Amino acid sequence: MKTLGEFIIDRQGEYPGATGELSALFAALRLASQVVHREINKAGLADITGAADLENVQGEQQQKLDIYANDKFKVALAARGVVCGLASEEEERFIRFDEGLNPDAKYVVLIDPLDGSTNIDVNVSVGTVFSVYKRVTPFGQPISERDFLQRGRDQVAAGYVIYGSSTMMVYSTGNGVNGFTYDPSLGVFCLSHKNMRLPKSGNIYSVNEGNYVHFPNGVKKYIKYCQVEDEATNRPYTSRYIGSLIADFHRNLLKGGIYLYPTSSRYPDGKLRLLYECNPIAFLAEQAGGKAIGDRQQRILDIEPRAIHERSPLFVGSVDMIVKLEEFLEGGQ
Ligand code: AHG
Ligand code: MN
Ligand code: MN
């Protein structure tokens, strides 16, 4: 049995010149996720479910646990001395830790502290998803927005925690993807899914079909293709949609499948946020042998971000399925 802490220290040896700062950052993420796990698991008992009567910067109603999780990750990441700034779904502007607290820290973190948070009240899986970059602002200068507006391909690390039937952390530092299952009785994450690979093909498609009539033609045609019977290609595919990106991606990562969040009339740019939802998921997908593209078939990780909370359509999953989707996107706009 190997714990997440041991695994990180083992891996550190593979990076010449490693200083242990990234390990400290992961220790912070690990600790905060343990606290959030504890809170989520008693969500039906304590008065912590439901809406908080507040809206975030994107006009979305914040759940009490959105705010709770945001606070825990913020405090944990500020405390280790290795993070100079944080951008979060729940914060309008990025938060500086470089003033006084961590002036020489080299990492910035972008985070969705609680993904799928409206699912908590109905006891369905939620997640935390994060992305880590090196700062681009020279040490000694105040960090700025450009430290956060980096392309996904420049991520140093990315990962998620899924609070499901068990809690797991899945992450990559650009050298494959590994998954760790939390043992609450021991208080440790243990390596349970070594070198995760996204199956080259699959038979699950995940999309909010309630928005179907508003989807671009190519996407509509692809969904119809998924539903047509064809023995040779194992169709019709199975439809699975939880409504928590992390849980939907996690299932497809293990079983093979495609996740689609296209543009629609309600969300003309798609719903998911590029920097702290699409990019970390795309990084993990590619690291596991999968593929992630936007609606113009551009690689998600190559998109030049313009704003911290910008949105992007996302198509991610098994390579063969994304390649098939591309045929429809080309033909069907
Ligand atoms: P969040 O709870 O962080 O705002 O994210 C919700 C996201 C994502 O988790 C999920 O895949 C998607 O919203 C579901 O959207 P629809 O309800 O439109 O399908
Ligand atoms: Mn989210
Ligand atoms: Mn969220």
What would you say this structure looks like, in words?
- This protein is α+β, with helices and mostly antiparallel strands and 333 residues long.
- The protein has two domains: 4-193, 2-Layer Sandwich (Fructose-1,6-Bisphosphatase, Chain A, domain 1); 204-331, D-Maltodextrin-Binding Protein, domain 2.
- It contains seven helices and 15 strands.
- Strands 4-3-5-6-7-8-9-10 form an eight-stranded mixed β-sheet, sandwiched between helices. It has a five-stranded mixed β-sheet with strand order 12-11-13-15-14, sandwiched between helices. A two-stranded antiparallel ribbon has the order 1-2.
- The model has no long low-confidence stretch (mean pLDDT 94).
- Bound molecules: 2,5-anhydro-1,6-di-O-phosphono-D-glucitol (AHG) and manganese (II) ion (MN) (2 copies).
List the helices and strands and how they pair.
Layout: H1 4-12, H2 21-41, E1 51-55, E2 61-63, H3 64-79, E3 83-88, E4 95-96, E5 107-115, E6 126-134, E7 157-163, E8 167-172, E9 178-183, E10 188-193, E11 204-206, H4 217-227, E12 238-239, H5 245-255, E13 258-261, H6 274-287, E14 291-293, E15 314-317, H7 319-332
Parallel strand pairs: 3-5, 11-12, 11-13
Antiparallel strand pairs: 1-2, 3-4, 5-6, 6-7, 7-8, 8-9, 9-10, 13-15, 14-15
Helix pairs in contact: 2-3, 4-7
The protein binds 2,5-anhydro-1,6-di-O-phosphono-D-glucitol and manganese (II) ion (2 copies).
Residues 112, 115, 245, 277 line the site of one manganese (II) ion (MN).
